[in-house]
Amino acid sequence: MKERHEIYIFTELQNYGFLTVLLYFIFKYPNHCISKFFYFYYMKKINLIAVALSCLFSIHSIAQGPKALVVTAHPDDETGMAAVIYKITHDLKGTVDQCVITNGEAGYKYSTLGNDYYGLDLTDPEVGRANLPRIRKQELINAGKIIGMNNIFFLDQKDAHYGLDEHEPLDTSWNVSWVSARLKDILTKTKYDYVFCLLPTPETHGGHKAATLLALRAVKDLPETQRPIILGVSGSTKTDTTIQHFTQLKAYTETKIDGDTALYKFDMSVGFGFKAILNYKIIVNWEIAEHKSQGTMQLYMNHGDYEDFWYFAINNPAGKAKCAALFEQLKKIPYQTRTY
């Protein structure tokens, strides 16, 4: 077998040498009868190869899963949709990128336990602001590996402080024109099917609202035929006594929801594996655990049963069927249950 392989390689090398001479002859004497014969002979083969490669690339493209971009204000905001990200990247073989507007350096107040872990007094404002950007970026990279995050785009805008007012980052801390241009560039270079961002409810962080507003505007500014479906994300539990309702944030018409409830849900608590005792909350817990500098984030382990997805009204209504199909796919459990 080895001998046949070596003969094949030698023959191919001889052919390439012959082709080199032949190409030189064709270009030097294009009207010669020999040139014309070999030109048509080899061009036919080349065209067949090109068609075959084109078919292969098309099949590969069809086989690829969905592409999504997550737009958030801080490292760790993606935990609110970590289970769906994991399912897309692992079960559906899709691609998820994340765009993070700040590095979360204002989170130093809750870094008490992180002081020992990182060997720094991160709760000191000066030390925290100097070191948390580097630390929190790495934490997000580590967390991203668990849930299958592909590219992470860090926009390095200032994280001033916690507050509910979206005007603070939009009017003061962030270079909004630059962030908007960067978002447009990211959305233009990759053809995403979906954009995920946090639902901009009145009680949520001002930075979360601001990040979602910029994501909505970036999608809205794209030509209609090139727009991904943009969904807002929140969480809920099976013990909730009321259904969450939301229609729009203040006078920001771009935040208007189609309806006033979440149209799609992913149940993280569905059991699988031996005795159906495992569930996707475990993946979310792994992901949360990587954000060690943020003490309060660790309190969200095992919290919530559903990741809820809201359909913004700026989307084409026809996209609802595509979303419904996606969430039906996400319900499927790929693991076989063994009997012992």
> Major sheet: order of its strands?
3-2-1-4-5-7-6
Structural class: alpha/beta
Count helical runs: 10
Determine Rg (CA atoms, Å): 26 Å
Helix content: 40-55%
What is the tally of beta strands?
7
The profile of the biggest β sheet is: 7 strands, mixed
Question: For the terminal residues, how far apart are their CA atoms?
Answer: 45 Å
Brief sketch in words of this structure:
The protein is α/β, with parallel strands linked by helices and 340 residues long. The chain is built from ten helices and seven strands.
What report would you give on this structure?
Helices cover 46% and strands 13% of the residues. The chain has helices at 2-28, 33-63, 82-91, 112-118, 125-147, 167-173, 176-189, 206-220, 281-289, 319-331; strands spanning 67-72, 95-102, 152-157, 194-198, 229-236, 264-267, 306-311. Strands 3-2-1-4-5-7-6 form a seven-stranded mixed beta sheet, sandwiched between helices. Strand 4, helix 8 (206-220) and strand 5 form a beta-alpha-beta unit. The longest helix is centred in the N-terminal third of the chain and has 31 residues, at 33-63.
Strand-helix topology:
Layout: H1 2-28, H2 33-63, E1 67-72, H3 82-91, E2 95-102, H4 112-118, H5 125-147, E3 152-157, H6 167-173, H7 176-189, E4 194-198, H8 206-220, E5 229-236, E6 264-267, H9 281-289, E7 306-311, H10 319-331
Parallel strand pairs: 1-2, 1-4, 2-3, 4-5
Antiparallel strand pairs: 5-7, 6-7
Helix pairs in contact: 1-2, 5-9, 7-8
